[in-house]
């Protein structure tokens, strides 16, 4: 027997309400802009394809710049970061990349993340 009414339900966007991370422990809950800041940190600190608990869409491939020159790393990092972060539906765009030298083997990058809750300034460092 075929149901008379449609059984298809519309999907709803899930809220960003989640556990709050503070240093080495969980402390309370976060939502909105703070939850997206936490998600950015977690995505960039998780190496893509390394952990079976995460899908292949989660994490960043920042280690791809290891062994490359700084100019090569500067050319690759914006796309690596943007690809990793834009998998989150709350993040619209990533831009305004600024690079700085940490030491002879390390490079830092600051950037701006456009989210549904506003702008977030973020940064990450990597070995080259």
Description:
This protein has helices at residues 33-45, 70-85; strands at residues 18-22, 25-30, 91-103, 106-115, 118-127. The model is unreliable at 6-14 (pLDDT under 50). It is of the alpha+beta class. A hairpin with a 2-residue loop joins strand 1 and strand 2. It is built from two helices and five strands, in the order ββααβββ.
N- and C-termini, Cα separation: 63 Å
Q: Rg to the nearest angstrom? A: 18 Å
Helix proportion:
10-25%
What overall form do the CA principal axes indicate? globular
> Order of SSEs, N→C?
EEHHEEE
Category by helix and strand content: alpha+beta
* Largest sheet report: 3 strands, antiparallel
Summed up, the helix count is 2
Overall mean pLDDT:
88
Strand arrangement within the widest β-sheet reads 3-4-5
Task: Give me the count of strands.
Answer: 5
Task: Give the key terms.
two-stranded antiparallel ribbon, alpha+beta, three-stranded antiparallel sheet, about 35% strand, 2 helices, about 130 residues
